[in-house]
Task: structure prediction
Amino acid sequence: MPNSIVLAKNYTGLLDEVYRGASVTADLTSDSSMMRAGANANEILYPQIEVTGLGDYSRNSGYTDGTVSVVWKTTTFNYDRGTKIMVDTMDNQETFNIAFGMAGATLQRDKVAPEADAFTFATLAGVDGISKAPAAIYADASAFLAALLEAKSIMDEDEVPEENRLLYATPTLLNGVMALDTTKSREILSTFAVKKSVPQSRFYTSINLLDGKTTGEELGHYKKAENGKDINFMIIHKPAIIKFDKHTASSIISPDNNPNADGYISKYRKYGLVDVYKNKVAGIYLSHKE
Result:
């Protein structure tokens, strides 16, 4: 058992490191202190706050009475995914205890992180009321830069705070505008708190999550939906979204406790939510291809 405990500690640390390095949406994770449990186990409550405006001040009676309305909105968790992998004891031993760790790291890097990113972008892209650019394929970096400027102007007019705006774009577009290295390009890019390249394979307006069970979906993971479009870029105001993992489980079963085979088992599950505050949909701007 001591060897199993040591392996579990080392393995978990490796998983955390790989996920942070591979995910491009980790910056969007919400403050969990703003959430509370709903009446049902699959629900979460988040606050939506409104205040009344200014009124005329009277030198006799003073201030007008304002009100604050705090309404707890209910939403349902929309992400519940997991898998179980096994590495034979001899395979692990003959690779000097590397095989099991590598299998877990590969799972996180190649499957968990890309799927979490793709689900986040597709979910936000599908929210009603967000700002959208006309569908387009940008001919060059200058065209992309013009589209960014238009997006910035729209969000400015919608009074979306400039702080905490995050820019996500395909590597081709983002590298192209960075290569311009002009005063205009630097000035526009500097307005974003975070600038991240997103591989096109994670950047769709709609995806299908494969269940890992039915015919044709045995390998699990995700794929672009038939009605999905390739995303050019998204601007996300972090306070506008809810991205919260209620439960992430990563446990290890040693061969001694494996009733089916002589091998190490790793179980991984993530249960969470990606959503947008209903009064902050202007904080999402989407551009996708035709």
Observations:
- The longest strand covers residues 263-276.
